[in-house]
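The authors assume throughout that readers already know how a fold can be written as discrete tokens. What matters is that the chain and its backbone geometry are given together, residue for residue. A single example would do more here than another paragraph of explanation. For illustration, here is how one protein appears when written out as sequence plus structure tokens.
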Amino acid sequence: MPDSVADAKRALRADLRERRQVRSDRERDAASAGVTAQLDRLLDDLGATSMSCFLSTPTEPGTHEFVERAVARGIRVLLPITRADGLLDWAVATPDADIAEGLFGLPEPVADVVGPMAVDEVDLLVIPAAAIARDGTRLGWGRGYFDKMIGSMQHRPPIYAVVFDTEVFDELPHDDLDQPVCGVVTPTQTLTLSPARH
């Protein structure tokens, strides 16, 4: 990756991280409620019966309530578990699952692991992001877990990233390893994008 792209990504991530940290509890609660409503609607629109979804950190748009509701309505939800080798394992969400701190301090389920390939069978992927561009470019947090996962999938279902409304951009710095998404969910809207192949 050219140094200029890496530097631009690093600077933008730092700015976005800082903006997320200063959001009030009220803003975060409203974002969580909005994201839950948007994801509920997306499930209905796609007719999905299985999906993957990340468990949000305190500074991300909240997904915990959505996961609980999806499980309660009979959706099979896979939750990611980070591995030291850069891959993701998966666990099936259950109503009573314990949540613990995984690698990098991320919330992860304490549950039986179903392995990296389980995600190939879902109808929908909902993944985290720092920002999304209108051409489908996703800026992650720099560890590459989701880019590797998406890049290795044989069957790619619809992939939607969750961000705050202010984190949807006209364009973002990217490189060849960045995997595009086909949609973005914010607290107020769900946008279907036309990913450009980088």
Notes: The first strand starts at residue 50 and ends at 53. The chain is about 30% helix and 25% strand. The mean pLDDT is 93. Residues 53 and 126 are 5 Å apart (CA to CA).
